[in-house]
Every structure is written in structure tokens, then in C-alpha cells.
Hints:
Its main location: membrane. The protein is an all-alpha fold. About 75% of the residues lie in helices and about 0% in strands.
Amino acid sequence: MQKDAEIRGKGTGSNNKPNLMSNFLPYAFAATLVFGLMLLQLDIEHLLKLNPTLNYARFMVMIEGGAVTHLQDFATPWLTYISAFVYLIGFSGLLIGTFLVFAYKKDEKSLQEFSIAFTLIYLIAYPFYILFPVDVTSKTLPNMAPLLYTLDPSIIHFVRICDPTLDNCFPSLHAALSLMAMLLIISRAEHIGFKTIAVTITIAIQFTILYLGIHWITDMIGGIMLAFTSYYIATRYRENIVGFSERIVWKDEQEIRKKE
């Protein structure tokens, strides 16, 4: 608690300009890093000279067969539209809402934990997408319909920004990021309404990623494990990570001042 107060207290005074920068840099860095990696995925695969036909979906079939197809046995148009809304809007709203709740409460500690966990999840998942691509279930299983992708042509174009070849399945980012946000809301937020909304959306997301013909059950399990891992690291080692980043910012700022 004392260290947290000291960190927040550094934001005043001209000698603490680097710390003011460090309040915003983690979130800008996380967003820029993730967006950059998404855009560069195909370029990185070409740079590594990976076989474009490389795919490990067959191992998912060996592990779980076609179990996920049973979720579409009771598919209806209204359920598909609701699921698509949860997948596209609910997921984004949960992540943005989590950030805004902590920002509104000026909870710097929780914002730092969110930023660290968010970045960790993507950095850990990214090598799997590059080296061990797994096709979506609707592209692999003959009895699985691509419910999300056939709703509107604009949806598939949007999805391909994040997943160019529809093979970024394991682990599921939707499962990992939503659960991570829910864990932070439950443990850090005080308002019961926020907690209820976070839990409801997170549970709904776990269903939709399977029902819409996108993820395997194994993907969801991998995403859940990744969420708990990143949450533990972010909450357990936040002070160490933030302290390290602040030392780097302070060092860079000092070098700039010397040159001036």
C-alpha cells in the first residue's frame, strides 16, 4: 500500500515528468503492440518461411472429435444473432468497460494489472498462432456451420484483420481476455452490478466461441488457463514490472535531458 501511494505521489512536480509519462505509456504500448502484431502476422510467417499449409486442426479432432458440433443441434436465427452480438460487441465492451471503470475510479493499480495481463495474454498466444496454427471448427468439421461468418460479408473482413487465415484458434483470445477482465472486475471493483455484468458476458462468450463455429473446446480450455496465468502474474508481480518500466522511462528521460 505504501509503495502504491508513493508511485501515485510521484505524478506531481517537474522532477517527476517521467512518472507522468509512465501512467499512460503502458496502455498505449499494449494497444500498439497488439495491433502491430496482428497486422504483421502474415509478414512474420513469410519471414520465417513457414509452410502456408501448416495446420494442427487434425490434432484437435484427435483430442475431442466432433463434440463441439452438438452445440449447433439447437441453432436458431435469434440465438445466432445474439451470439454474434456477444462475440463482436459484448467482448469489446467488456474489455473497454473494464478499462473505463478503473480509469473513472482512478484506480491506477488495477489499470496497471489490466495492462500487464492484456499484454501477457497476447504475447503468450502469438507464438502459437505463428508456429502452431489451428483452423476454426467450421473450416475443419463438415457438420459445423460457419454461423458467424455467413451473417454479413463485413464480419468476415473484420475478423480477418485479427485472424488473416482463420487459424488463430489455440488458445482462444476471447476466452482468455474476457475471463481475465472478469477476474479483475470481481477482485478489484466494488459495484455488484459491474461484477454481475462481467460474469454474465464472460460466460456468454465461452458459449458463443463454440456455438458460432469458431473455437474448439481445447481452445477454450487453453484460453482459461492463459487467463488465470496472466492474472496471477499481473497481480503478483505488478510492482516489479511497473518499477522496471519506470526505471527505463526515467533513464531515457535523463538521457534526453543531458542531450538538451
